[in-house]
Every structure is written in C-alpha cells, then in structure tokens.
Amino acid sequence: MAAAALGLGMFVGSTLGPRIARRLPAAGLRLTVAVIGLALAIQLWITATD
Q1: How confident is the model at residue 1 (pLDDT cuts 50, 70, 90)?
Q2: Which pLDDT score is estimated for 7?
Q3: How far is CA 48 from the centre of its chain?
Q4: What is the pLDDT of residues 39-50, one digit of tens each?
Q5: DSSP 49
Q6: CA distance to 7, 16, 22, 29, 37, per residue, from 32 (Å)
Q7: Average pLDDT score over residue span 7-31
Q8: Is the CB of residue 21 less than 8 Å from the CB of residue 29?
Q9: Phi then psi for 24, rounded to 5 degrees?
Q10: Which of 6-40 are b and which e, b meaning 16 or more Cβ less than 10 Å from the residue's Cβ?
C-alpha cells in the first residue's frame, strides 16, 4: 500500500510539479519547500523517538 502511494505521489508530482513551479515566484516556492521539509523532518524526529 505504501509503495502505491509513493508511486502515485511521484507520478503526480513529476507531472504537475514543473508546470506549477514555472508559474510561482522562485523565492516563495523555495520558502514553501523549506518549511514543508523542516516540518516533515520534525515530525519524523518526534515519531522516531516515541
């Protein structure tokens, strides 16, 4: 099940990602990606220590 979700996310991300990224301001996109990455890292750190 996890592999299917990862595969679907990869397909959708690789299809829509470049189209969306071209239309967004670079600074805003970088900030958004950094915040999401930091939030994911914190969540993984918290769940790994439980």
Answers
A1: confident
A2: 94
A3: 19
A4: 999 999 999 876
A5: T
A6: 23, 16, 15, 5, 9
A7: 94
A8: yes
A9: -95, 150
A10: eeeeeeeeeeeeeeeeeeeeeeeeeeeeeeeeeee
